[in-house]
Automatic annotation (TrEMBL):
The lineage of its organism: Bacteria, Bacillati, Bacillota, Erysipelotrichia, Erysipelotrichales. It holds the Pfam family Glyco_hydro_1. It comes from Faecalitalea cylindroides. GO terms for biological process: carbohydrate catabolic process. This is 6-phospho-beta-glucosidase. The keyword Iron does not apply. InterPro entries: GH, GH_1_N_CS, Glyco_hydro_1.
Length: 491
């Protein structure tokens, strides 16, 4: 019998990442992460990454939203909304400043211990991403980041440190955030170590696979393979250190549709979905899928996968599949159409869907569709680790933020989740991306706001940092209180 309630114990909450909110980039012994060296940009003007810090330039990770110093206030606000779970990431460079130091930085360990304890004080379960984009700079310079097998060793040591230190405080883990992003421009910046050349501009308007050199493609896929190995070794170690640990993958899982029923578009969309399956198959099933040989050949990529690697992947399968879902894209090969589908390259714009301020299509049905596709393929529990709306918020004359567009987005995606659960999908939790405004990953802006909590800070890092509850804050509180059912009452 279908009802309006979500399953008992459904984990409602929100998600952040260290470099997008903590700030304190050089405090208490923290080393530099790649993400600390990204300048701010806009949708049309890409962020830049330079190895030299320019004192005249604002780097958004420098300040974040000052969560490092205000985490108690922020977690208290999360608790007020009724969070059951807080997804956050640990900054590797806070624990091992150079990525591979002999001993961990005690102050870094203490900081996260305090954060986890603060969560538990309110009955909030921490869900921890071990790596969310922020490879320590030292590893990128010294050994070309994820192109080196030595980075796998460093990561596994770091992961074991976390599992050991926080045993009993944390039991839900994600090894790598959106690991499939290593296939695109994120791979250059956050993973592949294409930094030895010094300066690189992240060109978000030129990320198509065709535009890339074979050399770059080879680096991205080699780096991704090393991340798979690191993830599998961490999963194995995490289970050995504490059998209660539940460890997941995290894959950006935006839906891809054919633009029309022309079979060429159907095949193209199938190929786009392989960006998800490529990673999910390795991390959930423990092996590369049948299609990867041709998929890589067509990109001019030669991948070295040894027998030992295959064994490692088999032994390090994840317990659950987590995903981010924001939007959908379409594939169109047979006609010229509008390709403005946001700052990620999701192909042709879908004429049936409305877009956000940043061009991302609003598509809750796509969430139901993709959850069914994932569950049908893997049959493991699923967790929505990110979903949300980046929008321009205005503070009204009454001092409040009336973000009915965000409430609408949340309501419709919650309905879609419920539909998927009623379809039979084993979905056990949901964390809204950026429950408090934070720095945008793709553009580095503060102006692109996701939060239920407004933070008084602008793109240049100016503002009081004061936290203000938006209308959506009260809506999410009610949604959690009613275990999801209020989204149906308002129909
Ligand atoms: C995901 C990332 O890609 O999307 C987050 O895991 C990111 O780090 C989020 O912030 C939203 O993207 P953006 O570019 O709007 O911040």
């Amino acid at each position: 019998m279908v009802n309006n309630k979500f399953p008992d114990n459904f984990l409602w909450g929100g998600a952040t990442a260290a470099y997008q909110c903590e700030g304190a980039w050089d405090e208490d012994g923290k080393g530099f992460a790649i993400t600390d060296l990204l300048t701010a940009g806009t949708r049309r003007n890409p962020r830049k990454l330079t190895l030299e810090v320019d004192p005249g330039v604002y780097y958004p990770a420098k300040k974040g939203i000052d969560h490092y110093h205000r985490y108690k206030e922020d977690i208290k606000l999360f608790a007020e909304m009724g969070f059951k779970v807080y997804r956050m990431s640990v900054s590797w460079a806070r624990i091992y400043p150079n990525g591979d130091d002999e001993k961990p930085n005690q102050k870094g360990l203490d900081f996260y211990r305090d954060v986890f304890k603060e969560c538990h004080k309110y009955g909030i379960e921490p869900l921890v991403s071990i790596m969310h984009h922020d490879t320590p700079v030292a590893l990128a310079i010294k050994q070309d980041g994820w192109l080196s097998k030595k980075t796998i060793d460093a990561y596994v040591k770091y992961a074991k440190t976390l599992f050991t230190e926080y045993k009993g405080l944390v039991r839900y883990w994600i090894t790598f955030n959106e690991i499939n992003m290593t296939m695109n421009y994120f791979g250059d910046v956050y993973g592949a170590g294409i930094l030895s050349n010094g300066t690189r501009i992240i060109d978000i308007n030129n990320v198509s696979d065709d535009a890339m050199s074979k050399e770059k493609q080879n680096k991205r896929f080699a780096a991704l393979h090393n991340q798979f190995l690191a993830s599998a070794l961490a999963v194995k170690a995490g289970h050995e250190i504490d059998p209660n640990n539940q460890i997941g993958c995290m894959i950006a899982s935006d839906a891809h549709y054919p633009y029309s029923c022309n079979p060429v578009n159907i095949l193209a969309a199938q190929n786009s979905m392989r960006k998800l399956w490529y990673c999910g198959d390795v991390q959930v099933r423990g092996e590369y899928s049948y299609f990867t040989k041709r998929y890589l050949e067509e990109k001019g990529v030669t991948l070295n996968v040894t027998e030992e690697d295959k064994k490692i992947l088999k032994e390090g399968k994840v317990d659950f599949y987590s995903l981010s879902y924001y939007t959908s894209g379409t594939d169109c090969l047979d006609q010229e159409v509008d390709t403005d589908s946001g700052n990620f390259n999701l192909g042709a714009a879908n004429p049936y869907l409305k877009k956000s301020d940043w061009g991302w299509a609003f598509d809750p049905d796509g969430l139901r569709w993709v959850l069914n596709e994932i569950y049908g393929r893997y049959n493991v529990p699923i967790f929505i680790a990110e979903n949300g709306l980046g929008a321009i918020d205005e503070v009204s004359d009454d001092g409040k933020i009336h973000d009915d567009y965000r409430i609408h987005y949340l309501r419709e995606h919650t309905k879609a989740m419920k539909q998927a659960i009623d379809d039979g999908v084993d979905l056990f939790g949901y964390t809204w991306w950026g429950p408090i405004d934070l720095v945008s990953a793709s553009t580095g802006e503060m102006k692109k706001r996701y939060g239920f909590i407004y933070v008084d800070l602008d793109n240049e890092g100016k503002g009081t940092l004061q936290r203000v509850r938006k209308d959506s804050f009260y809506y999410y509180k009610k949604l959690i209180e009613t275990n999801g059912s209020c989204v149906f009452e308002e129909d």
